[in-house]
């Protein structure tokens, strides 16, 4: 990919760690960019996995701006994708230097105010909602169509296999609980306090709060 891939100024990248809301964000972006192409009751997201829709979109569209990151710390802090702290902090700092190119999003914030962030996302990728669309409730309709429960319960996301880099992954793997605070069911209080200490140390002086 390093040898052949050539990015364009209009490309949109979703840059996030696994299990941090990536599939949800991909669905939101696809639905936003194609909202005038399909009526919601016949939208491809109803029958196709969001990753499949985005793959198809790459062949048809060249819109948007640059990079999008949706970040949340991993409970373990270390995994096969490299230090999450460096990953998150790097994009956080870049979002402050170039806010027109890098949009930094947090999973919990999107959950709390999905409509607000859907509008922010649409504006960032160059597909802002018109006043007429907002008055008709188009934003709310797209948020609902891309909600975690809506996507998780679709037949196309309950079964099927997604092939990437020689690996075959069940569609259902992309949907966990979709809840904030589930760490309490997996971490002891001691582990949580240790994680808080690591976060404070790694992000000290950056202005980033998780």
From TrEMBL:
Entry superkingdom: Eukaryota
* Record's keyword annotation contains Transmembrane: yes
Mind telling me which SUPFAM superfamilies this protein's record contains?
Answer: P-loop containing nucleoside triphosphate hydrolases
Q: What is this protein called?
A: Sulfotransferase
Domain Sulfotransferase residues, every copy: 9-59, 81-207
Q: Which GO terms describe its molecular function?
A: sulfotransferase activity
Q: What class of enzyme is it?
A: transferase
E.C. number(s) listed in UniProt: 2.8.2.-
By sequence similarity, the record places it as follows: Belongs to the sulfotransferase 1 family.
Q: Which UniProt keywords apply?
A: Membrane, Transferase, Transmembrane, Transmembrane helix
Segments traversing the membrane:
12-33
